[in-house]
Design a protein that fits this description.
By secondary structure, the protein is mostly helical. Helix content is 52%, strand content 5%. The strands form two sheets. It has a three-stranded parallel beta sheet with strand order 1-2-3. It has a two-stranded parallel sheet with strand order 4-5. Bound molecules: flavin-adenine dinucleotide (FAD).
Length: 394
Protein backbone atom coordinates (compact mmCIF):
# COMPACT_ATOMS: atom_id res chain seq x y z
CA UNK A 1 0.00 0.00 0.00
CA UNK A 2 1.10 3.52 -0.52
CA UNK A 3 0.59 6.64 1.50
CA UNK A 4 0.29 10.20 0.36
CA UNK A 5 0.68 12.33 3.48
CA UNK A 6 4.46 12.56 3.61
CA UNK A 7 5.96 15.50 1.85
CA UNK A 8 9.19 15.63 -0.07
CA UNK A 9 12.00 17.63 1.48
CA UNK A 10 13.57 19.95 -1.09
CA UNK A 11 16.74 18.53 -2.60
CA UNK A 12 19.60 20.89 -1.81
CA UNK A 13 23.16 19.64 -2.31
CA UNK A 14 24.45 20.24 1.20
CA UNK A 15 25.35 17.93 4.05
CA UNK A 16 23.06 19.89 6.37
CA UNK A 17 20.07 19.28 4.13
CA UNK A 18 20.94 15.59 3.71
CA UNK A 19 21.08 15.14 7.49
CA UNK A 20 17.83 17.08 7.89
CA UNK A 21 16.13 14.79 5.40
CA UNK A 22 17.55 11.71 7.12
CA UNK A 23 16.23 12.85 10.47
CA UNK A 24 12.70 13.15 9.04
CA UNK A 25 12.62 9.57 7.79
CA UNK A 26 11.53 7.54 10.82
CA UNK A 27 8.07 6.84 9.40
CA UNK A 28 9.34 6.05 5.89
CA UNK A 29 11.96 3.63 7.23
CA UNK A 30 9.47 2.05 9.62
CA UNK A 31 7.02 1.32 6.76
CA UNK A 32 9.69 0.63 4.16
CA UNK A 33 9.31 -3.16 4.01
CA UNK A 34 5.64 -2.90 2.97
CA UNK A 35 5.58 0.41 1.07
CA UNK A 36 8.83 0.66 -0.84
CA UNK A 37 7.64 -0.94 -4.10
CA UNK A 38 4.89 1.64 -4.60
CA UNK A 39 6.12 4.29 -6.99
CA UNK A 40 3.51 6.77 -5.90
CA UNK A 41 4.31 9.11 -3.02
CA UNK A 42 7.16 9.22 -0.53
CA UNK A 43 7.59 5.48 0.02
CA UNK A 44 11.39 5.53 -0.01
CA UNK A 45 14.01 7.79 1.52
CA UNK A 46 15.12 9.80 -1.58
CA UNK A 47 18.52 9.99 0.06
CA UNK A 48 20.41 8.64 -2.94
CA UNK A 49 21.67 11.98 -4.34
CA UNK A 50 23.23 12.69 -0.91
CA UNK A 51 24.63 9.20 -0.38
CA UNK A 52 26.00 9.10 -3.92
CA UNK A 53 28.31 12.09 -3.27
CA UNK A 54 28.81 11.05 0.33
CA UNK A 55 27.27 14.25 1.59
CA UNK A 56 25.88 11.81 4.10
CA UNK A 57 27.55 8.49 4.80
CA UNK A 58 26.09 5.00 4.72
CA UNK A 59 27.05 4.46 8.36
CA UNK A 60 25.09 7.59 9.34
CA UNK A 61 22.04 6.33 7.45
CA UNK A 62 22.30 2.88 9.03
CA UNK A 63 22.84 4.35 12.48
CA UNK A 64 19.72 6.50 12.15
CA UNK A 65 17.73 3.50 10.89
CA UNK A 66 18.64 1.63 14.10
CA UNK A 67 16.84 4.33 16.09
CA UNK A 68 13.62 3.47 14.25
CA UNK A 69 13.42 -0.13 15.41
CA UNK A 70 15.18 -3.44 15.93
CA UNK A 71 17.13 -5.03 13.11
CA UNK A 72 14.16 -7.12 11.95
CA UNK A 73 12.09 -3.95 11.47
CA UNK A 74 14.69 -2.10 9.46
CA UNK A 75 16.34 -5.08 7.76
CA UNK A 76 14.84 -4.43 4.31
CA UNK A 77 15.97 -0.81 4.39
CA UNK A 78 19.48 -1.75 5.59
CA UNK A 79 19.64 -4.34 2.82
CA UNK A 80 18.92 -1.71 0.18
CA UNK A 81 21.47 0.70 1.65
CA UNK A 82 24.16 -1.94 1.24
CA UNK A 83 22.99 -2.93 -2.26
CA UNK A 84 24.81 0.22 -3.26
CA UNK A 85 27.86 -0.94 -1.32
CA UNK A 86 27.62 -4.34 -2.99
CA UNK A 87 27.52 -2.85 -6.50
CA UNK A 88 30.44 -0.53 -5.68
CA UNK A 89 32.49 -3.38 -4.25
CA UNK A 90 31.60 -5.72 -7.13
CA UNK A 91 32.67 -3.20 -9.78
CA UNK A 92 35.80 -2.27 -7.85
CA UNK A 93 36.91 -5.87 -8.21
CA UNK A 94 36.01 -5.94 -11.92
CA UNK A 95 36.63 -2.46 -13.29
CA UNK A 96 36.97 -3.89 -16.82
CA UNK A 97 33.15 -4.09 -16.86
CA UNK A 98 33.05 -0.27 -16.66
CA UNK A 99 35.65 0.02 -19.43
CA UNK A 100 33.70 -2.43 -21.61
CA UNK A 101 30.57 -0.28 -21.14
CA UNK A 102 32.39 2.89 -22.28
CA UNK A 103 33.96 1.09 -25.25
CA UNK A 104 30.62 -0.31 -26.33
CA UNK A 105 29.05 3.16 -26.13
CA UNK A 106 31.73 4.50 -28.44
CA UNK A 107 31.07 1.68 -30.90
CA UNK A 108 27.31 2.17 -30.75
CA UNK A 109 27.66 5.91 -31.35
CA UNK A 110 29.48 5.10 -34.59
CA UNK A 111 27.44 2.14 -35.78
CA UNK A 112 23.85 2.29 -34.51
CA UNK A 113 21.56 1.62 -37.52
CA UNK A 114 19.30 4.47 -38.65
CA UNK A 115 16.03 2.80 -37.59
CA UNK A 116 17.42 2.25 -34.08
CA UNK A 117 18.56 5.86 -33.99
CA UNK A 118 15.03 7.02 -34.76
CA UNK A 119 13.64 4.95 -31.87
CA UNK A 120 16.43 6.22 -29.63
CA UNK A 121 15.64 9.86 -30.41
CA UNK A 122 11.93 9.29 -29.66
CA UNK A 123 12.69 7.43 -26.42
CA UNK A 124 15.05 10.09 -25.09
CA UNK A 125 12.67 12.89 -26.06
CA UNK A 126 9.79 11.10 -24.31
CA UNK A 127 7.87 10.97 -27.59
CA UNK A 128 7.00 7.28 -27.83
CA UNK A 129 3.60 5.60 -28.10
CA UNK A 130 3.71 4.73 -24.39
CA UNK A 131 2.41 7.64 -22.26
CA UNK A 132 3.81 6.22 -19.00
CA UNK A 133 7.29 5.86 -20.50
CA UNK A 134 7.08 9.45 -21.78
CA UNK A 135 6.03 10.65 -18.32
CA UNK A 136 8.99 8.83 -16.70
CA UNK A 137 11.34 10.45 -19.24
CA UNK A 138 9.97 13.85 -18.36
CA UNK A 139 10.26 13.14 -14.62
CA UNK A 140 13.86 12.00 -15.03
CA UNK A 141 15.00 15.01 -17.03
CA UNK A 142 13.02 17.57 -15.02
CA UNK A 143 13.77 16.28 -11.48
CA UNK A 144 16.87 14.05 -11.72
CA UNK A 145 15.10 11.29 -9.80
CA UNK A 146 13.06 8.15 -10.51
CA UNK A 147 11.74 5.65 -7.99
CA UNK A 148 13.55 2.28 -8.07
CA UNK A 149 10.54 0.43 -9.47
CA UNK A 150 10.17 3.01 -12.23
CA UNK A 151 13.87 2.59 -13.07
CA UNK A 152 13.28 -1.13 -13.41
CA UNK A 153 10.21 -0.69 -15.64
CA UNK A 154 11.94 2.01 -17.68
CA UNK A 155 15.06 -0.09 -18.31
CA UNK A 156 12.98 -3.16 -19.12
CA UNK A 157 10.77 -1.31 -21.63
CA UNK A 158 13.88 0.26 -23.17
CA UNK A 159 15.64 -3.07 -23.62
CA UNK A 160 12.83 -5.56 -24.31
CA UNK A 161 9.98 -3.54 -25.85
CA UNK A 162 11.93 -0.83 -27.71
CA UNK A 163 14.88 -3.18 -28.37
CA UNK A 164 17.37 -0.39 -27.78
CA UNK A 165 20.94 -1.06 -26.54
CA UNK A 166 21.04 -1.15 -22.73
CA UNK A 167 24.25 0.90 -22.71
CA UNK A 168 22.47 3.87 -24.30
CA UNK A 169 19.72 3.71 -21.69
CA UNK A 170 22.32 3.50 -18.93
CA UNK A 171 24.00 6.61 -20.36
CA UNK A 172 20.67 8.47 -20.44
CA UNK A 173 20.22 7.64 -16.74
CA UNK A 174 23.80 8.49 -15.77
CA UNK A 175 23.54 11.86 -17.49
CA UNK A 176 20.28 12.80 -15.77
CA UNK A 177 20.05 11.12 -12.38
CA UNK A 178 21.27 13.25 -9.47
CA UNK A 179 22.42 9.98 -7.91
CA UNK A 180 23.90 8.73 -11.21
CA UNK A 181 26.59 6.29 -10.21
CA UNK A 182 28.88 4.17 -12.41
CA UNK A 183 28.44 1.04 -10.29
CA UNK A 184 24.75 1.12 -9.28
CA UNK A 185 23.66 2.33 -12.69
CA UNK A 186 25.75 0.14 -15.00
CA UNK A 187 25.20 -3.00 -12.96
CA UNK A 188 21.46 -2.40 -12.45
CA UNK A 189 20.97 -2.00 -16.21
CA UNK A 190 22.99 -5.18 -16.73
CA UNK A 191 20.81 -6.90 -14.13
CA UNK A 192 17.55 -5.86 -15.89
CA UNK A 193 19.01 -7.09 -19.21
CA UNK A 194 19.84 -10.50 -17.70
CA UNK A 195 23.60 -9.98 -18.09
CA UNK A 196 24.52 -9.55 -14.44
CA UNK A 197 22.75 -12.72 -13.34
CA UNK A 198 22.95 -14.49 -16.70
CA UNK A 199 19.62 -15.84 -17.91
CA UNK A 200 17.60 -13.99 -15.24
CA UNK A 201 16.20 -10.78 -16.60
CA UNK A 202 13.54 -8.37 -15.41
CA UNK A 203 10.41 -8.03 -17.53
CA UNK A 204 8.06 -5.12 -16.85
CA UNK A 205 4.48 -6.38 -16.68
CA UNK A 206 1.33 -4.34 -17.24
CA UNK A 207 -0.36 -5.63 -14.06
CA UNK A 208 2.70 -4.86 -11.94
CA UNK A 209 2.87 -1.29 -13.28
CA UNK A 210 -0.86 -0.79 -12.67
CA UNK A 211 -0.62 -2.14 -9.12
CA UNK A 212 2.45 -0.24 -7.99
CA UNK A 213 1.39 3.05 -9.55
CA UNK A 214 -1.98 2.69 -7.79
CA UNK A 215 -3.68 2.58 -11.18
CA UNK A 216 -2.14 5.79 -12.46
CA UNK A 217 -0.67 3.91 -15.41
CA UNK A 218 -2.34 0.86 -16.92
CA UNK A 219 -0.48 -0.36 -20.03
CA UNK A 220 -2.75 -1.74 -22.73
CA UNK A 221 -2.68 -5.47 -23.51
CA UNK A 222 0.14 -6.34 -25.90
CA UNK A 223 1.85 -2.96 -25.49
CA UNK A 224 4.81 -4.39 -23.58
CA UNK A 225 6.89 -7.37 -24.59
CA UNK A 226 6.29 -9.54 -21.54
CA UNK A 227 7.89 -12.68 -22.93
CA UNK A 228 11.24 -11.48 -24.30
CA UNK A 229 14.38 -13.52 -23.63
CA UNK A 230 17.37 -12.14 -21.74
CA UNK A 231 20.13 -10.55 -23.75
CA UNK A 232 22.89 -12.89 -24.87
CA UNK A 233 25.37 -13.54 -22.07
CA UNK A 234 28.52 -11.44 -22.61
CA UNK A 235 30.51 -13.41 -20.02
CA UNK A 236 31.43 -10.29 -18.06
CA UNK A 237 29.50 -11.32 -14.94
CA UNK A 238 31.83 -14.27 -14.55
CA UNK A 239 35.21 -12.64 -15.03
CA UNK A 240 37.46 -13.31 -12.05
CA UNK A 241 37.45 -10.69 -9.32
CA UNK A 242 40.67 -8.77 -8.71
CA UNK A 243 41.18 -7.90 -5.05
CA UNK A 244 40.65 -4.13 -4.87
CA UNK A 245 43.49 -2.10 -3.32
CA UNK A 246 41.71 -1.08 -0.10
CA UNK A 247 43.10 0.83 2.88
CA UNK A 248 44.46 2.41 4.88
CA UNK A 249 41.41 3.69 6.78
CA UNK A 250 41.23 7.44 6.12
CA UNK A 251 40.65 8.17 9.80
CA UNK A 252 43.93 6.46 10.69
CA UNK A 253 46.25 8.60 8.57
CA UNK A 254 47.48 12.16 8.92
CA UNK A 255 48.15 13.61 5.46
CA UNK A 256 50.15 16.84 5.23
CA UNK A 257 48.01 17.97 2.28
CA UNK A 258 44.75 16.72 0.79
CA UNK A 259 43.29 16.45 -2.68
CA UNK A 260 39.50 16.56 -2.88
CA UNK A 261 37.29 15.29 -5.71
CA UNK A 262 33.57 15.13 -6.41
CA UNK A 263 33.17 11.44 -5.60
CA UNK A 264 33.43 12.14 -1.88
CA UNK A 265 31.96 15.37 -0.52
CA UNK A 266 31.65 13.95 2.97
CA UNK A 267 33.04 15.13 6.28
CA UNK A 268 36.82 14.87 6.51
CA UNK A 269 38.31 12.82 9.33
CA UNK A 270 39.68 14.97 12.20
CA UNK A 271 43.19 13.95 11.23
CA UNK A 272 42.71 15.62 7.82
CA UNK A 273 41.71 19.00 9.23
CA UNK A 274 43.78 22.16 8.99
CA UNK A 275 46.05 21.00 6.18
CA UNK A 276 46.29 22.65 2.75
CA UNK A 277 43.60 21.39 0.38
CA UNK A 278 43.31 21.35 -3.40
CA UNK A 279 40.21 20.31 -5.35
CA UNK A 280 40.81 18.40 -8.57
CA UNK A 281 37.93 19.35 -10.86
CA UNK A 282 37.14 16.52 -13.26
CA UNK A 283 35.07 17.50 -16.27
CA UNK A 284 36.10 14.75 -18.68
CA UNK A 285 33.25 12.24 -18.89
CA UNK A 286 33.90 10.29 -22.10
CA UNK A 287 30.82 9.27 -24.10
CA UNK A 288 28.63 11.21 -21.64
CA UNK A 289 27.15 14.67 -21.40
CA UNK A 290 25.69 15.33 -17.94
CA UNK A 291 22.47 17.32 -17.83
CA UNK A 292 22.21 20.75 -16.22
CA UNK A 293 20.63 19.44 -13.01
CA UNK A 294 23.46 16.94 -12.54
CA UNK A 295 26.11 19.59 -13.19
CA UNK A 296 24.43 21.87 -10.65
CA UNK A 297 24.16 19.08 -8.09
CA UNK A 298 27.86 18.26 -8.37
CA UNK A 299 28.83 21.95 -8.26
CA UNK A 300 26.65 22.48 -5.17
CA UNK A 301 27.93 19.38 -3.37
CA UNK A 302 31.58 20.28 -3.99
CA UNK A 303 31.00 23.90 -2.94
CA UNK A 304 29.41 22.65 0.27
CA UNK A 305 32.36 20.33 0.93
CA UNK A 306 34.82 23.18 0.28
CA UNK A 307 32.95 25.52 2.62
CA UNK A 308 33.25 22.92 5.39
CA UNK A 309 37.00 22.61 4.78
CA UNK A 310 37.74 26.35 4.66
CA UNK A 311 40.29 27.36 2.05
CA UNK A 312 40.45 25.14 -1.02
CA UNK A 313 42.36 25.84 -4.24
CA UNK A 314 40.75 24.67 -7.48
CA UNK A 315 42.90 22.78 -9.98
CA UNK A 316 41.61 21.75 -13.39
CA UNK A 317 44.66 19.88 -14.67
CA UNK A 318 47.64 17.87 -13.49
CA UNK A 319 49.83 20.92 -14.16
CA UNK A 320 47.71 23.02 -11.79
CA UNK A 321 47.93 20.36 -9.06
CA UNK A 322 51.71 20.23 -9.52
CA UNK A 323 51.97 24.03 -9.28
CA UNK A 324 49.89 23.98 -6.11
CA UNK A 325 52.15 21.28 -4.60
CA UNK A 326 55.24 23.35 -5.43
CA UNK A 327 53.81 26.53 -3.93
CA UNK A 328 52.85 24.65 -0.76
CA UNK A 329 56.09 22.64 -0.58
CA UNK A 330 54.12 19.40 -0.77
CA UNK A 331 55.56 16.09 -1.98
CA UNK A 332 52.83 13.77 -0.70
CA UNK A 333 49.06 14.30 -0.95
CA UNK A 334 46.27 12.26 0.66
CA UNK A 335 42.93 11.64 -1.06
CA UNK A 336 39.88 9.43 -0.75
CA UNK A 337 40.23 6.59 -3.22
CA UNK A 338 37.98 7.46 -6.18
CA UNK A 339 36.09 4.28 -7.02
CA UNK A 340 35.69 2.99 -10.57
CA UNK A 341 34.26 5.68 -12.83
CA UNK A 342 35.17 8.97 -14.48
CA UNK A 343 36.96 10.43 -11.46
CA UNK A 344 38.83 7.17 -10.88
CA UNK A 345 39.99 7.22 -14.53
CA UNK A 346 41.08 10.87 -14.27
CA UNK A 347 42.93 10.32 -10.99
CA UNK A 348 44.78 7.32 -12.40
CA UNK A 349 46.21 9.65 -15.07
CA UNK A 350 46.90 12.36 -12.50
CA UNK A 351 48.74 9.91 -10.23
CA UNK A 352 51.11 9.02 -13.05
CA UNK A 353 51.63 12.68 -13.93
CA UNK A 354 52.42 13.61 -10.33
CA UNK A 355 54.77 10.66 -9.90
CA UNK A 356 56.96 11.94 -12.76
CA UNK A 357 57.60 15.09 -10.73
CA UNK A 358 58.23 13.18 -7.50
CA UNK A 359 54.84 13.90 -5.93
CA UNK A 360 52.98 10.95 -4.42
CA UNK A 361 49.20 10.72 -4.34
CA UNK A 362 48.24 8.36 -1.51
CA UNK A 363 44.71 7.00 -1.34
CA UNK A 364 42.77 6.05 1.76
CA UNK A 365 39.29 4.58 2.14
CA UNK A 366 36.20 5.07 4.24
CA UNK A 367 35.84 2.42 6.97
CA UNK A 368 32.47 1.31 5.53
CA UNK A 369 34.08 0.34 2.22
CA UNK A 370 37.01 -1.40 3.91
CA UNK A 371 34.57 -3.53 5.92
CA UNK A 372 32.08 -4.43 3.21
CA UNK A 373 33.80 -4.40 -0.20
CA UNK A 374 35.75 -7.62 0.44
CA UNK A 375 32.37 -9.36 0.94
CA UNK A 376 31.25 -8.48 -2.63
CA UNK A 377 32.97 -11.41 -4.28
CA UNK A 378 29.95 -13.27 -5.70
CA UNK A 379 26.20 -12.63 -5.84
CA UNK A 380 24.25 -10.26 -3.60
CA UNK A 381 22.82 -12.95 -1.34
CA UNK A 382 26.14 -14.39 -0.12
CA UNK A 383 27.21 -10.76 0.32
CA UNK A 384 24.11 -10.00 2.40
CA UNK A 385 24.61 -13.13 4.49
CA UNK A 386 28.06 -11.86 5.51
CA UNK A 387 27.15 -8.15 5.71
CA UNK A 388 24.05 -8.69 7.85
CA UNK A 389 26.13 -10.48 10.49
CA UNK A 390 28.30 -7.36 10.82
CA UNK A 391 25.31 -5.01 10.73
CA UNK A 392 23.36 -6.96 13.36
CA UNK A 393 26.30 -6.69 15.77
CA UNK A 394 26.39 -2.87 15.58
C1 LIG B 1 18.12 0.61 -14.02
C2 LIG B 1 18.52 1.15 -12.65
C3 LIG B 1 19.47 2.14 -12.55
C4 LIG B 1 19.86 2.62 -11.29
N1 LIG B 1 20.81 3.61 -11.23
C5 LIG B 1 21.22 4.05 -10.02
C6 LIG B 1 22.21 5.06 -9.91
O1 LIG B 1 22.75 5.54 -10.91
N2 LIG B 1 22.56 5.49 -8.67
C7 LIG B 1 21.99 4.97 -7.55
O2 LIG B 1 22.33 5.42 -6.44
N3 LIG B 1 21.07 4.00 -7.63
C8 LIG B 1 20.67 3.53 -8.81
N4 LIG B 1 19.71 2.55 -8.87
C9 LIG B 1 19.25 1.93 -7.63
C10 LIG B 1 17.98 2.53 -6.99
O3 LIG B 1 17.00 2.69 -7.95
C11 LIG B 1 18.23 3.88 -6.31
O4 LIG B 1 19.36 3.81 -5.46
C12 LIG B 1 17.02 4.28 -5.47
O5 LIG B 1 15.88 4.33 -6.28
C13 LIG B 1 17.26 5.62 -4.83
O6 LIG B 1 16.08 6.10 -4.22
P1 LIG B 1 15.99 6.23 -2.64
O7 LIG B 1 17.13 7.03 -2.14
O8 LIG B 1 14.62 6.71 -2.32
O9 LIG B 1 16.19 4.72 -2.19
P2 LIG B 1 15.75 3.94 -0.88
O10 LIG B 1 14.84 2.85 -1.32
O11 LIG B 1 15.27 4.83 0.18
O12 LIG B 1 17.09 3.23 -0.42
C14 LIG B 1 18.02 3.85 0.47
C15 LIG B 1 19.38 3.90 -0.20
O13 LIG B 1 19.82 2.58 -0.51
C16 LIG B 1 20.50 2.56 -1.76
N5 LIG B 1 19.72 1.73 -2.70
C17 LIG B 1 18.40 1.46 -2.66
N6 LIG B 1 18.06 0.60 -3.65
C18 LIG B 1 19.19 0.32 -4.31
C19 LIG B 1 19.51 -0.51 -5.42
N7 LIG B 1 18.59 -1.26 -6.05
N8 LIG B 1 20.79 -0.55 -5.87
C20 LIG B 1 21.76 0.18 -5.25
N9 LIG B 1 21.52 0.98 -4.17
C21 LIG B 1 20.27 1.04 -3.71
C22 LIG B 1 20.57 4.01 -2.24
O14 LIG B 1 21.78 4.58 -1.82
C23 LIG B 1 19.38 4.62 -1.52
O15 LIG B 1 19.48 6.00 -1.33
C24 LIG B 1 19.29 2.06 -10.12
C25 LIG B 1 18.33 1.05 -10.24
C26 LIG B 1 17.94 0.61 -11.48
C27 LIG B 1 16.90 -0.49 -11.57
Amino acid sequence: MAESGRSLTALVPTRTQGLRQLNDLAEVIGDYATSRNYADGMTTSRLSPYIRRRLILEEEVLEFARTVGGFARIEKFAQEVVWRTYWKGWLEARSSVWKAYLTQLRTLDETLPGADQDRLVCAIAGKTDLPYFNAWCDELTSTGYLHNHVRMWFASVWIFTFRLPWEMGARFFLDHLLDGDPASNTLSWRWVAGLQTPGKHYLARADNIAKYTNGRWVPKPGELDESAHSLRDDGLARIPAVKPPLGPDASQIQPRAVLLHDEDCGPLPDSWAAVPAVRFVVTDRPQHCPGKLVEEWIAGATADADARVGTVTLARSAAEVIDWCRVNGVVEVGAFRPLTGFVGDALAVLTTGLATTGIQLRFADRGHDITFFPMATRGFFPFWEAASVTLRRR
